[in-house]
Each structure stands twice: as C-alpha cells, then as structure tokens.
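Re: [ENG-882] Designed sequences occasionally contain unexpected residues at chain ends

Forwarding the minimal case from QA. Structure tokens:
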C-alpha cells in the first residue's frame, strides 16, 4: 500500500471480538484477556484507517499511507464466538478441517456478496467489528484463530 499500488485491504478476522459464554477457568480468563488486548489494537487500527484514511506503522509511529483506503471484512465471529477458548489449541485433524471448511464457506459467501465492490468502494460495515452480536450471520465463519 505504501507504494500506491493498492487501495483495498481485505481483513480476515480470525479472532472473535465477542464470545457467547463467559470464561470460567483461570486459563480461559487469561486467554480471553489476551484476545481482548489483541482486539483493542485491531479495533484502533481499523478505526484509524476508516477515519483518517491512513495506515500507521506502530513501531515507528509514522504514517505510511494517506490515500483513501477501501476496507473489506470476512468475519469469523459467527463461528468462533461459539467455540471454547481452548479450541485455539485443538490440533485434531477433524477440527482443523471443520475450521478450514467454515473459512472457505465464509470466503465464498463474501465473494458472492461483495467481490464486485473491490476497487470501487469499502464494504466493511462497522457494526460487524464493534457490535458482532448484531451481525452474527453476515460473513460469519472464517476459519482460524
């Protein structure tokens, strides 16, 4: 983006903003705190891009791109918010295939609904990030976490 060759960013959200259940164990609470910390940075970055049209190099604190940026989001909130936090450590092949299939389904749905807008306008709906419970069906199911 810093050389001016692209003006679109596709975000594949693979860390849930919200969870359907509260964490109960010490490990789950710690893992959820890590998720929240990551999400704060993510939300700040998206907000800065949306409102300032700029990408910021967090290490250098320097602006690296100031042209308008079109944002697009494939969200995994619908699938990931219903999984236990411990699922991040699940390396069982059937689970990995399930997440892979959910991600491909979400990407396919996004392509069907919004791909024609790439290069034209931003398709990111802020509520999908800030209020995922209101948008649980749209673009839900991206794999990974």
């Amino acid at each position: 983006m810093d050389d001016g060759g692209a003006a679109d960013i596709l975000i594949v959200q693979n860390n849930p903003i919200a969870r359907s259940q509260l964490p109960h164990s010490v490990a789950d609470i710690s893992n959820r705190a890590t998720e929240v910390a990551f999400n704060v940075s993510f939300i700040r970055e998206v907000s800065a891009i949306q409102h300032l049209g700029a990408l910021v190099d967090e290490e250098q604190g320097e602006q690296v791109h100031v042209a308008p940026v079109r944002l697009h989001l494939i969200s995994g909130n619908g699938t990931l918010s219903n999984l236990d936090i411990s699922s991040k450590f699940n390396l069982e092949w059937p689970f990995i295939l399930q997440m892979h299939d959910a991600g491909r389904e979400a990407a396919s749905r996004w392509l069907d609904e919004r791909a024609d807008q790439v290069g034209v306008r931003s398709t990111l709906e802020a509520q999908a990030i800030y209020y995922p419970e209101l948008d649980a069906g749209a673009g839900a199911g991206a794999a990974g976490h």
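QA comment: On inspection the terminal residues look reasonable. Strands lie at 8-13, 55-57, 62-65, 70-75. Proposing we downgrade this to a documentation issue.
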